[in-house]
Amino acid sequence: MNVAIRRATADDVDWLCGLLNDEQTEPFLAAARATDRDGIAAEVERSEREPRTFGRFVIEVDGERAGVMGFEERSERNRIAHLGGLAVHPSFRGRGVADEAARILQRHLFDELGFHRLELACYGFNERAIRHSERVGFVREGVQRKAYLRHGEWQDAVLFALLREDLDGC
Predict the structure, then answer these.
(1) Domain segments of the chain: what residues?
(2) Contact status, residue 157 vs residue 144, Cβ threshold 8 Å
(3) How far is it, in rounded angstroms, from Cα 54 to Cα 57?
(4) Edge to edge, what strands does the sheet with 117-123 contain?
(5) Which of 1, 53, 69, 77 could form a disulfide with 73 if both were Cys (CB 3.0 to 4.6 A apart)?
(6) 5-33 as b/e, with b when 16 or more CB fall inside 10 Å?
(7) CA 15, CA 58: separation in Å to the nearest integer?
(8) Tell me, what's the pLDDT at 7?
(9) Minimal CA–CA distance to 38: which of 57, 58, 10?
C-alpha cells in the first residue's frame, strides 16, 4: 500500500464535499469549517495561493483518493501550525492510512516549511482521533472543558502538540 499526500486541486472539490459531509465523517469534524462546495473550493484555492501558510491535502492510496487533511499557520513569529480536518473515507479506515499520511505531513511541515510546533485539537468523544494523535507522536497537553458546542451539546477539546525534536527520537 503506497500512501501519499498532494495539495488538493479544483478537480477534488466535489469529492471533498462528499467525504466531508458523509454521515460517517461529519460528526467528528469541526463545526467551524467549510461544508459547501463554494467554501471548500475557496479553501482549495487558498491552499494553492498560500502554500507556506495554508494547506488542504488529499490523501491517496495507490493513486486513489482516500482522505483529506490540512494545516494553517497560527504564528509566523513562533513558527506554529495548527492541523485539522483529517478525514479518511470509510472504505480506507483501519489500514493505517491516516497514520502514514500524518507522518508525511509532519515531515513536510517541519522539514520543508520550517515550522517548529504543530498543534491540533479534537473532540473529547472522538476516541479514534485521540488514539491516532498519540500513535503519530503528538503529546497530549490538556483539555479545554466544554469548549465547543457541537450538535447541541458542549464538548471537551483534547489538545495535542508535536515539536520537531519529538520526531528525532522516533
Answers:
(1) 3-120
(2) yes
(3) 10
(4) 3-7, 54-61, 64-75, 80-88, 117-123, 153-163, 139-150
(5) 53
(6) beebeeebbeebbebbeeeebeeebeeee
(7) 10
(8) 98
(9) 10
Task: Give the pLDDT band of residue 29 (cuts 50, 70, 90).
Answer: confident
Give the count of beta carbons closer than 10 Å to the beta carbon of residue 158: 23
Query: What pTM was computed for the model?
Result: 0.92
Q: Map residue 46 onto helix, strand or coil.
A: helix
Residues 6+ away with beta carbon under 8 Å from 80: 73, 74, 115, 116, 117, 118, 119
What is the CATH code of the structural domain delimited by 3-120?
3.40.630.30
Residue with cell 500524518: 102
Amino acid, single-letter form, for residue 115? F
Of 45, 47, 35, 32, whose CA–CA distance to 150 is shortest?
Answer: 32
Residue with cell 491517496: 60
pLDDT digits (tens, 9 = 90+) for 66-113: 999 999 999 999 999 999 989 999 999 999 999 999 999 999 999 999
